[in-house]
Amino acid sequence: MGAGVDAGRDATPFLPMLATASTTLPPAAQDGRWAYEFKWDGVRILCRIGPGGATALSSRTGREVTATYPELAGLGAALGREAVLDGEVVALDPRTGRPSFGTLQQRMHLTRATEIDRLLATVPVTFFVFDLLALDGAVLTGRPYRERRDVLDGLGLRGPSWQTPPAFTGGGSDVLAASRAGGLEGVVAKRLDSPYRSGRRSEEWLKVKNLRARDVVVGGWTTGRGRREGGLGALMLGVPDGTALRYVGNVGTGFTNRALEHLASTLATLATPTSPFADVPRAHARDAHWVRPELVGEVVYVEWTGEGRLRHPVWRGLRSDVSPAEVSPAGPTPGSADDPVGAA
């Protein structure tokens, strides 16, 4: 784990506080004890603003990433105070105007200044600031969220590449519905009385994602590792595309032990030496076991990527009531929904 970001004059190191995944919002009876923020589909960043407005950025693990996002260099001068800020760096999909992790990937791994400069105009990023850990050398992490947020809102952070998005006290179901309608990833619920627990995952912060559901055709599988060593690791998925089966990714989570056993025995009866897919990348095909495309299952997922893959699919089960011919062809355009469901 990296060293994290310090608080300037206080020199206290920080790492991001992490939310716990949840399939549901807090109970309605407790709704007023929570604040709700939209969940942004980006990468977590801590920003330290030091003396003279010097700005330093670090990743969730404490890795230095200042040079990757030069458009944030002016934030310190704009604020004019020493501070440690927590937030998310986001890139917008130029087609939809919504946050897109796929778009951000074009920037997030770059280290060469020439490559970064080339993409500044075409793949700009925005820093969405949602928490304040220190100000003018004073550490604020022990204060409740509501107080930290009030101080943050009072800073008036809004510039060409940074802003403070809204937080809503209560009304969680409405905020979640608004996130779904806006094509956002979901919401993060934060207890109003929660301190900032640096580097820890806490149930005082809950993340509830908007996932979509769709049927897929199973065309192969890969061998597992770790506790699944030698058995089924992931299913290879496809959807019809004309007369072909288009590969849309692998799913390796969501299985019960019983489901793994049932799938393994069923897949053994469908083994075939040739791939049923029209377009599997070589890296994915290298260790694949092919099967006849006769099984249909359901997955939930976050979105379609720009490459036509399912992002973060989770297995829900076989659909014995659906034939491969009934699976909707090729899926929606990347970034849009199939059937939205609230899950995490």
Description of the molecule:
- This protein is an alpha+beta fold and 344 residues long.
- The protein folds into two domains: 8-19 and 40-167, DNA ligase/mRNA capping enzyme (D-amino Acid Aminotransferase, Chain A, domain 1), CATH 3.30.470; 211-343, Nucleic acid-binding proteins (OB fold (Dihydrolipoamide Acetyltransferase, E2P)), CATH 2.40.50.
- It has seven helices and 19 strands.
- 38% of the residues are buried.
Concise description?
By secondary structure, the chain is an alpha+beta fold. The protein folds into two domains: 8-19 and 40-167, D-amino Acid Aminotransferase, Chain A, domain 1 (2-Layer Sandwich); 211-343, OB fold (Dihydrolipoamide Acetyltransferase, E2P).
Key terms:
OB fold (Dihydrolipoamide Acetyltransferase, E2P); 344 residues; globular; 16% helix; 10-stranded mixed beta sheet; D-amino Acid Aminotransferase, Chain A, domain 1; alpha+beta; 7 helices; 7-stranded mixed beta sheet
Poorly predicted tracts of residues: 7-11, 332-337
Between the first and last Cα atoms, what is the distance in angstroms? 26 Å
Average pLDDT rating: 89
Number of domains: 2
How many beta strands in the DSSP annotation? 19
Helix content estimate: 10-25%
**General shape:** globular
- Taking Cα atoms only, what radius of gyration do you get, to the nearest Å? 22 Å
- In this structure, how is the largest beta sheet organized? 10 strands, mixed
**SSE order, as H and E?**
EEEEHEHHEEHEEEHEEEEHHEEEEE
Second rung of CATH, namely the architecture of the largest domain: 2-Layer Sandwich
Q: Which strand-content bin applies to the residues?
A: 35-45%
CATH topology name of the largest domain, in short, is D-amino Acid Aminotransferase, Chain A, domain 1
Q: What is the CATH domain class of the largest domain? A: Alpha Beta
Find the structural class using helix and strand composition.
alpha+beta
Number of helices: 7
In the CATH hierarchy, what is the superfamily of the largest domain? DNA ligase/mRNA capping enzyme
